[in-house]
Amino acid sequence: MNLPRIQPINPSRIAAAFDHPDWIFELKHDGFRAVAYIEDGARELVSRKQVTYKSFNTLATAMSGLRVRDAILDGEIVCLDKFGRSQFLDLMRRRRQDAAFYAFDLLFHDGEDLRGLPLTERKRRLRRLIRASRNERLLYADHIESRGVDFFRAHRLGTYATRPATWYKVLNPAYTQKRGRREMFDKFRDRGENVSAEL
User: Does residue 49 have an active-site annotation?
Assistant: First the structure.
């Protein structure tokens, strides 16, 4: 089987969090969006621009802990502090050593296309898969149901489809890691590390 290339869903931004019994909500970690492909022993992390993250080869190798023949996972490459909070500046500075993969969706698994299943079922299978791997660099993005204040993303019954919009994100106005981000990308580019090309 040749796994299809997935264009990850880009969440639509909305002004405020909300509560709704038909939705689930996740904390969005600040990192690099990535789709993980596992097939025939090969493991690859691919950006939204369909570029392989060569800087994270060791993290891709960690995917060998997943007990699958083939799989596609949607998630985020992150660096976490001791409290489990994503630190984007650390991700930029220590891109190879300390990165982890926070998986929040399972799109293919052992020959089965899961994109038409409800998100809650995909996440149930994903949680079981991640827990069985027992790899501290592979993490499961948990969620809460109905209560959306401070949480966001993903309709509980939503299939993996871009239209109509089923994923939303709410930005925290007090968020501070966004400041100086463009300048940091420029510094890495000046040193010959074209990070933005991957993103």
Answer: no
